[in-house]
Design brief:
- The chain is α/β, with parallel strands linked by helices.
- It folds into 2 domains: 2-47 and 267-358, Aspartate Aminotransferase, domain 1 (Alpha-Beta Complex), CATH 3.90.1150; 52-264, Aspartate Aminotransferase, domain 2 (3-Layer(aba) Sandwich).
- It has 13 helices and 12 strands.
- The strands form 2 sheets. Strands 2-8-7-6-5-3-4 form a 7-stranded mixed sheet, with helices on both faces. A 5-stranded mixed sheet has the order 1-11-12-10-9.
- The longest helix is centred in the last third of the chain and has 23 residues, at 266-288.
- It is globular.
- The relative contact order is 0.16.
- Bound molecules: pyridoxal-5'-phosphate (PLP).
- Pyridoxal-5'-phosphate (PLP) binds next to helix 5.
Length: 359
Amino acid sequence: MINKFINQHILDLKKYDPVDSDKKLAEEFGLKEKDIIRLNANENPYGPWEGLEDSFSEIKLNVYPDSNQDLLRESLSKYTGLNKDQIVAGSGADEMIECIFKIFCNKNDILIDVQPTFGMYSFLADSIGMKVIPFERDLDWSINIDKLKKEIGISSAKLIFLASPNNPTGNSLPNEDLEEILKLGILVVVDETYFEFCGSTSVKMIKNYENLIILRSFSKWAGIAGLRIGYMLANSEIIDNVFKVKQPYNINVVAEKAAILTLENRIDLQFNIEKILSEKKVFAKFIDNLDGVNAFSSDANFILCKFSKNGGEFIFNKLAREGIFVRSFSNENLKDCLRFTIGTTNQMKKVKDVLKATN
Ligand SMILES: Cc1ncc(COP(=O)(O)O)c(C=O)c1O
């Protein structure tokens, strides 16, 4: 009965498939929560900057946060080299994606989804009744730019998201390719959620292209996924409009303080990033030496592996029985692929032991 009031595209929408809680995984696989190794959400196994939690006791929890995000945007301005009016923060990069749809898109507008990629783009487009046109990456996950340009022209797409490094494939988008797409005048969102693991950015192009939006996050490199904080970089006109549509108090006081302190102490966090990157190298080499498994080169804190010999599902279950959870996929183009977040040396040793035993 109530369904007749609900928008048809919402009735048709499949729920987003988030990572399960430790509690749920423990129940499902008959494990103890403390034994669970989470390598399925690209979280940082080392956690936040070590002084962070002590600083929380000074925060006034009874006052609303600064809706204008002045201190935070000043810190981000120093970090990114952009002006404060080119920056806005959100409750994760996810909230910024939602704001983009609110500002620019209507029902039946077209999004090109360069697959495989982060699922939130097409999910949120579907949630407002947009048309999502899939565009497949090549077998090495690179993008055929000429083909993509043609598709953009034919479809009259309004918007495209390009994650760089891309999740789950790990490869980055060359700036020359980005520039070709920007020149078409379509709205281009470059998602740099994993920027701190690779160091390459398109920020400098913002001054030349008003159709470029960049997204960043504190969830991965800074180890504060639980606090939900990300940000958008774009020309000031776009940012002005985000301030109109975002919830006024979207960054809670704890997240705001955490982000500022994280930026001030980022040299300490760099050490953890380096540990992750060196562990990633070791893991890629290990995979290369296994039979019937292929690791795709990655610029992020995860590696996508294809288990052609044993199949992805078999390996997923073997790992899960040992309490190790990685990301599996139902997409046809990711058949037998699993994405491994790079964990601590100890965690990765456990992963390697399971994989060795199955090879
Ligand atoms: C490419 C990409 N963009 C955005 C996000 C979401 O980031 P946040 O936690 O800041 O919402 C993720 C999370 O996995 C991601 O992989």
